[in-house]
Amino acid sequence: MRAAGFALAGNAVRAPALLRGQEGPPLLPPYVTDIDGSGAIDASDREIVSTALYAQRGFGLTPRPGFDYRADVFGRAVVEPLVVDAVTHSIQRYGESTMPTPRRPITVAWHYGWYNTLDRPPGSHSQTVRFKGGDYLSSDPEVETTFHDLKNEFGVTVDALSWIPRRLTTGNNRNYFRGFLQAPNVATRHVCLLYEDTLALPATGGRIGFLAPTVQSAFRDDFVAMARFLRDVRRVSPVRIFALDGRPVVFIFGTHTWGRLPLSTREASAMQTTIASARQDFADVYGEFPYLVGEEMQLSSTGQFSADRRTRSRFFDAIYIYHHAANIKQGSEQRLRMSPLYIQNQITTLRTTYAAATEIRNLFTGRRLLVIPNLAPGFAKSGHPTLEIGRGEYANFMKLLKGMHMEEHILRYWSGELGQAVLPAPVYVVGSWNEEFEGHCVWPFDFNLSVPAESVEQHGFDISMALKEVFGWNHYAFRDIAPAAPPAEPVF
Predict the structure, then answer these.
(1) Do 378 and 338 form a contact (C-beta atoms < 8 A)?
(2) Does residue 209 share a domain with residue 278?
(3) Please, which residues have CB within 8 angstroms of residue 416's CB and are 6 or more apart in sequence?
C-alpha cells in the first residue's frame, strides 16, 4: 500500500491536458486533500472546494475577493470541476483506509533582512529576480505583511532569518524587528536562524581556522547573540520559534569551510571544544540547546564522503546544502537546463549523503543525522552558469526528490521518530524567499533570470504555484508544528 501510495501521490498532479486525459480523477497526497488543514480528511474538505467552484485567483499579489486559496489544489489559480472530483475521489480512497492522515511536510525558505536601499537596478548582478510587487525595504512592515500572506498561501512553513552579528552590521537584524515582526499577521509564521558564519568569522584563503583564538571567541559571542536574538523575538512578538527535538533550529551557512585542509586532529579537537562551549552558552541564555544544521551534504557524484565532512558532521543534528546547484562553479556564463542527467546527479548526491549519515552519530545527543534536502528552483548568479527551469520541471523535480527522500531516508531510518518532537514531519529547504542575488527566489516575480521568458506560464507565479501544487498551502499558519502520533503505515 505504501508503494502504491507513493506512485499515485507522486504522479497526482500534472499539466492540465494530461489531467483531463487520465482515467478517472487523480489521487492527491493526503496533506493536499486536507483542504482545511485540520489534520483529518473528511466532508468539510470537499465542502470547501465545492463552495469555491469556478473561483479564480487572478495574478495580482492579492487574490480576488471570494477566492479561497486552500481550494486551489493544483496550483493553477482556478477551482475547476476537476478539483472537486479529485478531492472527492481522494477523500473516498483515504476514507476506506485505516491509516491516519500524515502531517504536512515542513518547508523552510531563507529570508533576508539586509534590503536597506531601493537602488537595485533590474537585471543587474545585484538583482537577478524582481519581486512582482516592485522594490521593497526589509524594514517595511507593509511589505512583510504581504510576504507572510503569500508564504502561507504558497506553502512556505518556516522563515530562516539570515543572521549577521552587530559587529558587522546593525541594520540587518534590526530590520526584522522593524518590519518582519511588526506585521499584523506575524503570528502565522514560524522562524529559525540562518547563521552567516562565512561573513561573521575571520577566514584565510576561504577557510575558517578553529585554532585561531579570534575565531573561537567570535563563534561563542555569536551563539550568545543568536540566543538573545531569539529570546527577544519570542518576548516581543507572537511569532513561533521553529524547533526540532524541542530545540530552536539554527542553519549554518558554509560549514564545509571550517578547518584548514587536511583537517588535523588538533584542529578537530579545537572545533569540538568551541562548539560544545557555544552550545552551552546558547542554552544558558535561551534555555534550550540549539538544534544545529550544518552545510555538509556531499556534492560529489563519485560516492565519496570526505573525511573532513565526516568529522564535522558529528557536531550537527542535521545536514543540508544551501542550494543543490552549489556545484555549478564560477567562470562560465553558459545556460543549462535542469536535465535528466542533472537530476540523476542530485539523486546520487542524496544517496551518497544517506549512506554517510547512517554511520554518523551526533556527538552531543547520540542520534543519527537527519538529512534535509534542498528543493530550490533554478540558479542565476553573475559569473556562473545559469540553471534554467520552468514551472512543470520544478514541480516534477520536487515530487521526485520528495518521494525518494521519504522512501529512502525518512521511512527507512526515521519512521519510529516521525510525528514525534524530534521530527514532527519531514523537512525540506525550498530555497530563498527574497535573496535576489542568487536568482532562485520562490516569490511571485516580475522577472527571474533562472526562468526563461518563454517558460513563464503563470505571470510570475510559476515557481510559487509549483511549490503549492506539491506541498499545499501552509497548514501550520493556524496550528503549531507539534508532535503527533506517527502513522502506522505512512502515506505520502
Answers:
(1) yes
(2) yes
(3) 486
Q: In Å, how far are 195, 347, 408 from 355, measured between CA atoms?
A: 27, 12, 10
Higher pLDDT, 97 or 376: 376
The DSSP secondary-structure symbol of 466 reads H
Same domain, 157 and 31: no
| CA dihedral sign of residues 235, 241, 244, 249 | negative
pLDDT at 214: 97
One domain, residues 80 and 185: no
3-state SS assignment for residue 350: helix
Residue burial 294-305, b: 16+ Cβ < 10 Å; e: rest: bbbbbbeeeeeb
Longest alpha-carbon distance in the chain? 66
Query: 370-371 and 427-432: which strand pairing?
Result: unpaired
Which of 95, 120, 148 is the C-terminal boundary of a domain? 95
Q: In the block, which residue shows the cell 515542513?
A: 106
Mean pLDDT for all residues in the chain: 90
Residues 161 and 55 in one domain: no
Q: Do 408 and 284 share a structural domain? A: yes
Burial of 398 (C-beta count, 10 Å sphere; 0-12/13-18/19+)? buried
How do residues 69-125 score in pLDDT, each as one tens digit? 999 999 999 999 999 999 999 999 988 654 556 789 999 999 999 999 988 887 777
The CA-CA-CA angle for residues 456, 326, 323, to 5°, reads 60
Number of helical (H) and strand (E) elements in the chain, helices listed first: 15, 14
pLDDT of residue 300: 63
463: nearest Cα among 397, 418, 414 = 397
| 402 plus 428 within the same structural domain | yes
As beta bridge partners, residue 204 has 207
Rounded distance, CA 361 to CA 368, Å? 5
Tell me the per-residue pLDDT of 310-358, one tens digit each, with 9 for 90 and over. 999 999 999 999 999 877 777 677 889 999 989 998 998 899 899 989 9
Strand partners, 194: 162, 251
CB 256 within 8 A of CB 307: no
Residue spans of alpha helices (H) in 168-293: 171-178, 197-200, 213-236, 265-286
Is the previous residue joined to 262 through a cis bond, with omega within 30 degrees of 0? yes
pLDDT for the residue numbered 430: 97
Grid cell in block for residue 205: 584563503
Task: Report how far residue 188's alpha carbon sits from residue 87's, in angstroms, rounded to the nearest whole number.
Answer: 26
Cell numbers of 236, please? Answer: 516581543
Query: How far apart (Å, rounded) are the C-alpha atoms in residues 13 and 5?
Result: 14
The answer to whether the Cα torsion of 279, 111, 399, 346 is positive or negative is negative
pLDDT (0 to 100) of residue 119 = 85
Q: Which domain holds residue 67?
A: 2-95
Question: What is the rounded average pLDDT of the residues 182-191?
Answer: 98
> Residue holding cell 560549514?
255
